[in-house]
Structures are given as C-alpha cells and as structure tokens.
Amino acid sequence: MLAIAPRYDEATEYSYKWIKKLMEELEAEYTPLFESDATRENFEKEVENHSIVVFYDHGDEVGLYAQGGRTYVIDKRNNHLLKGKIIYTMACLWGIDGGIDTWKKGAKVVWAYKDVFAFTNYDEELFMECANYGLIIVIKEGVSWEEAVEKAKKKFDEAIEKAEDGWTKIWLRHDRDALVCYTENNPPETSTCMLRQLAIKLFGAKRAWKLRRAKVFALMLTCVGYGIALHDFAHQVWELKGTSLSLEGGYIGFIMMLAGLLLLFLDHKV
Questions:
Q1: Alpha helices, DSSP H only, in 81-212?
Q2: In degrees rounded to 5, what are phi and psi of residue 48?
Q3: How would you classify residue 69: left for phi > 0, otherwise alpha for psi between -120 and 50, otherwise beta?
Q4: 52 backbone dihedrals φ, ψ, rounded to 5°
Q5: β-strands 72-74, 64-65: how paired?
Q6: Phi and psi at residue 103, in whole multiples of 5°?
Q7: Contact criterion met (CB below 8 Å) for 86 and 52
Q8: What is the DSSP code string of 88-119?
C-alpha cells in the first residue's frame, strides 16, 4: 500500500492525522509518502510496486495536490500509472472529472468525492471515522467495493444521528452525498462527452462506459446510413404508388435489419 499525505496548512494537519490513524487501524505494511516526500516524482517511482494507493489532502477537478499545493501528485498526465490499481482518496472535487478520467484509463477502483470535503474541527472524529471507514471494511472484513460505499454512506448517517451540532450534521450530509466509488460494476453516471452522456441516458452507465469511440462511430454510421436508405426507399414507394405507407418487402427488410442490429448490440459484451 502506498500512502500519500502532504502537510502544509491547517486543513492538511487534519488529513495527515487521519491517514496516520487509518494506517494504524489497518495494521498493514505501507510505504509512506508524507510531507516533503509527497511529490509527483516519488509517486511515479513507487506506484508500480503497490496495488493500493491512499491519498489524503487537497484536490480539485483535475488532480490531487503535492506538498506545498503548487503542483499535482496525480493528474491526467500520469493517472494512467494507476491502471489495474485501487486509489482511495479523501480530497475535494476529484471525483467530478480527474477521478473519472483515472477510472477510464483502467484504474480498478476510484474512491473519491465529487464536491468539496468539508468538516468541523470540533467534531473531526466523526468525519475521520466516516472518511476512513470504507477502506477499513474492505481490507479487514472483505466486503466488495460496491458494498463498502453503501456501508460508508450508512456510516455517515449514523454520524449524523450522533452529532449534536447543526453545522456538523450539514457537512456530514454534504460529504455523504459527495462520496462516489467507481468500479467496473459501478461506473460513473456522468461524463463531459456529449456522446457518452447520450449513451448513458439510452443504455445505462454500465453499458455506455464500455462503448469505445470506434464502436460509437460505427453505430452512428450505421444509423445514418440506415436512415438515408430508408428515406430513399420511402420516396421511391411514394413516386410509384402516391403514398409512402405501403406494405412492401423493403419495409419488412428494414424492420428485420433494425431488430437484428438491436439484438446484436444488446447481446454483445462491449
């Protein structure tokens, strides 16, 4: 396990403490990239030797910040190094875009937040327990990642019930709703690509994310060509009979081709 935690401002004082607590609870061997060691170069040198990467610190839509907050440890230029690996984060916003891009490039699991991760310092224990819980139950109890994210959200619910302060309750709900876990069986429900957005709406996230650009382009060509051919045939029927609506063998053929295309698409494991 590779544990990464910069430490350079008030917020990272807390995240640094939380990741240390997480490592203690896991009782597992890990390579620490803490404080001044939390750099892009060290990550790129060490990542191939680990199957799980844990990152606690600041993040944004693009990447996860290195020590000092001026550069990234992980961003879209090096997140391909996480292919086949698990990345578990407690950082703001990365689940919106950077985490999705990392999952698209082959990361096995991406645990992230699609909004800011906020907390109250006087109830930090509650936030720490919730942030750490998912990885703990996966490693120590052997639950699946899909089950872990559901249990983690319930852990947030328990913390909300336990909290007495109003702001603590508000931010616990906020963090719970921002939590995402991208896996093969639980892909992202959003995309910045318009074609992917359309595919998600038409076919559902799991199937849509498995479609590659070449397959999408081939499907578009097929549909456009089908439409042109159908329009041309209907026009010829109208010229011959004065109506486009006529029982013709060509229409039966078009219906059969469309049914066959749909059956192939639905049955094919893209």
A1: 98-104, 124-141, 145-162, 166-178, 194-203, 205-208
A2: -65, -15
A3: left
A4: -125, 130
A5: antiparallel
A6: -65, -40
A7: yes
A8: EEE-SSTTTTHHHHHHHTT-SEEEEESS----
Tokens (6 digits) for 7 = 């430490």
CATH number of the 2-191 domain: 3.40.50.1460
**Count of all residues that appear for the chain in the document:** 270
109 backbone dihedrals φ, ψ, rounded to 5°: -140, 135
What are the structural domain ranges in the chain? 2-191, 212-267
Of the candidates 158, 196, 201, 156, the one whose C-alpha atom is nearest the C-alpha of residue 174 is 156
Q: To which residue do tokens 């935690």 refer?
A: 5
pTM (whole model) above 0.85: no
Q: What is the pLDDT of residues 65-99, one digit of tens each?
A: 999 999 999 999 999 999 999 999 999 999 999 99
Spatial CB neighbours of 21, under 8 Å, sequence gap ≥ 6 = 128, 132
d(CA 256, CA 258): 5
The token pair at 241 is 């009979």
pLDDT tens across 213-225, in order?
A: 666 677 778 888 8
Mind listing the pLDDT tens digit for each residue in 176-204?
A: 999 999 999 898 876 565 555 565 566 56
| CA–CA dist 192, 100 (Å, integer) | 10
Q: What is the dihedral of CA 58, 18, 164, 9, to 10 degrees?
A: -40
Q: What is the DSSP letter of 46?
A: H
